């Protein structure tokens, strides 16, 4: 089997598994990303996420994660919902958290992909990654032609915008690589202009210390009082920079049942959100990414919105 045949076989299977895109890059050092990541960290843009400073070399070189790695296969999975929250005054959660935690969903699909590769191509060694290890997901996806990194720092495509997750397989299997695409943000600054907290401090640079997603999820301390009245009712995550992006007018609803919201979640009123109990939280957000902030964290966020 030629490298091209191997690659085409994998891409066909990726489509069967429901992935929106599949791109391949040779496993090697990310030279262009190294100085950008170093400066971003040096400027303190990672906030309290000290783990971002760990394993710096591994973030840039996949062969340090998977000895003998030859290819990085990137996958994208659409999560754009068919419906959004019905009460315009209700506290908002990011669309990616409507359904089951994407870590579980993508990992299951990647395991199936590995089994397929082993059964059709031969025994390979490697690892699957879904936003849970020192892997620069967006950089690899862009390098393999699945999109370009927009000014909001998220992966963008002309065909379907940016509402998708990214996962990777790093394997010791040689494949035919794809090339990167071009940047199509142009002179647009919609995401920068719309950010409620001015977190996009320059094109392609996000200061986590100001980002609502960071403040409502990653930050374990109290939300700084300086953000009172600036959160636009976001209680978990934020979609503003994506919602205003012109390319997201091409987003289409996903077809993954596991991403569908729990019954009643989208219909919750502001009052129901503010009075949410532990039991309701555990039921609605069972297996959801919202569980990451825990009940206490969500209550902290909800109370802060009342300031």
Automatic annotation (TrEMBL):
Keywords: 4Fe-4S, Cobalamin, Cobalt, Cytoplasm, Iron, Iron-sulfur, Metal-binding, Oxidoreductase, Queuosine biosynthesis, tRNA processing. Its cofactor is cob(II)alamin; [4Fe-4S] cluster. GO terms for cellular component: cytoplasm. It is found in: Cytoplasm. Residues 173-205 form the 4Fe-4S ferredoxin-type domain. GO terms for molecular function: 4 iron, 4 sulfur cluster binding; cobalamin binding; epoxyqueuosine reductase activity; metal ion binding. The keyword Oxidoreductase applies. One of its GO terms (biological process) is tRNA queuosine(34) biosynthetic process. Its EC number is 1.17.99.6. This is Epoxyqueuosine reductase. It comes from Phaeocystidibacter marisrubri. The lineage of its organism: Bacteria, Pseudomonadati, Bacteroidota, Flavobacteriia, Flavobacteriales. The gene is queG.
């Amino acid at each position: 089997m030629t490298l091209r045949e191997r690659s085409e076989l994998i891409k066909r299977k990726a489509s069967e598994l429901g992935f929106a895109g599949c791109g391949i890059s040779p496993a090697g050092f990310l030279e262009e990303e190294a100085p950008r990541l170093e400066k971003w960290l040096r400027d303190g843009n990672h906030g309290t996420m000290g783990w971002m400073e760990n394993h710096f070399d591994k973030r840039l070189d996949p062969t340090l994660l998977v000895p003998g790695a030859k290819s990085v296969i990137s996958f994208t999975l659409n999560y754009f919902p068919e419906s959004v929250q019905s009460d315009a005054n209700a506290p908002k959660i990011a669309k990616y958290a409507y359904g089951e935690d994407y870590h579980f969903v993508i990992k299951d699909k990647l395991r199936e992909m590995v089994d397929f590769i082993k059964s059709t191509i031969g025994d390979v060694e490697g690892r699957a990654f879904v936003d849970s290890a020192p892997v620069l997901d967006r950089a690899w996806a862009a390098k393999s032609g699945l999109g370009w990194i927009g000014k909001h720092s998220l992966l963008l495509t002309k065909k379907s915008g940016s509402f998708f997750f990214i996962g990777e397989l790093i394997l010791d299997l040689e494949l035919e690589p794809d090339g990167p695409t071009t940047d199509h943000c142009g002179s647009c600054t919609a995401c920068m202009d719309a950010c409620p907290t001015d977190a996009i401090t320059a094109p392609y640079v996000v200061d986590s210390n100001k980002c609502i997603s960071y403040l409502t999820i990653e930050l374990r301390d109290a939300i700084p009082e300086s953000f009172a009245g600036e959160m636009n009712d976001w209680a978990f995550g934020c979609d503003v920079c994506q919602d205003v992006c012109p390319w997201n007018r091409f987003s289409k609803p996903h077809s993954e049942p596991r991403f569908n919201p729990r019954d009643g979640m989208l219909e919750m009123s502001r009052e129901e959100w503010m009075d949410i109990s532990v039991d309701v939280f555990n039921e609605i957000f069972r297996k959801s990414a919202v569980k990451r902030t825990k009940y206490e964290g969500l209550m902290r966020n909800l109370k802060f919105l009342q300031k």
